[in-house]
Amino acid sequence: MPSPELRRLPGACWQPRPRLRAGVIPAGLRPWLFDEDSLTRRLVAASHGDFAVQVRRQWWGRARPDEARLLGIAPRHACRLREVLLLGQGQPWVFARSVLPDASLTGRSRFLRRLQSRPLGALLFQSPGTVRTRVEYAPFAGSGFPGNPDGGVVWGRRSVFLFQDKPLLVGEYFLPAVAAQRFPGR
Question: Higher confidence at residue 150 or residue 162?
Fold first, then answer.
């Protein structure tokens, strides 16, 4: 299965929340996009437990140039790349792309090489000492995203997590079906 192209809309760039223009993000999507707790936990609650991770691709490769810069690694650095769909009630709700530098997959973090259908986010939020850096947001051209048949804009967010003091990049792209779901409160 080919990866979505992840093409940002013309003139759009990754930016922190304070720099986003008010009203540019659909109201139903805002609580999902801006929540900084475990997305997996929220999806499990919203789907009433009917949640699954569908692995689309896992491979060794290189991070994209902007991903490498954010991770502080050389562009040629080997990374474990992982693309999954997070499904709620059998529907694609979120497309996620993770970039795990080879150097971050050593020692006690070695098990991350073989996540299979386990959600990475749940592991990160359950691990004491994991630190999430600043979250960035951007709109993307929706054509090519699974679960987005009309090709509308898909909003994404990304951040680096320091897991056992080693950087991992997690990007989450919110598909139309998730915005229609009631956001579960705390």
Answer: 162
For 159-169, write each residue's pLDDT tens digit. 999 998 999 99
| DSSP-assigned beta bridge partners for residue 132 | 161
| The pLDDT of residue 5 | 62
Name residue 6's amino acid.
L
Q: Is the dihedral of CA 134, 16, 62, 139 positive or negative?
A: positive
State phi, psi for 115 to the nearest 5 degrees: -70, -30
- Smallest CA-to-CA distance from 85 within 145, 159, 5 is with 145
Distances (CA, A) of 12 to 20, 50, 150: 10, 34, 20
Residue with tokens 């474990």: 80
Lookup result for tokens 């008010």: 22
CA dihedral 91, 96, 102, 105 (to 10 degrees): -60
The H-or-E segment that residue 132 falls in is: strand 131-132
Q: How far apart are CA 93 and CA 147, in angstroms?
A: 7
d(CA 100, CA 108) in angstroms, rounded, equals 14
* Apex 12 CA angle, 8 and 17, nearest 5: 110
- Phi/psi of residue 57, nearest 5 degrees: -155, 145
On whether the CB atoms of residues 54 and 82 are closer than 8 A, the answer is no
CA distance 186 to 36: 12
Per-residue confidence at 75, pLDDT binned at 50, 70, 90? very high
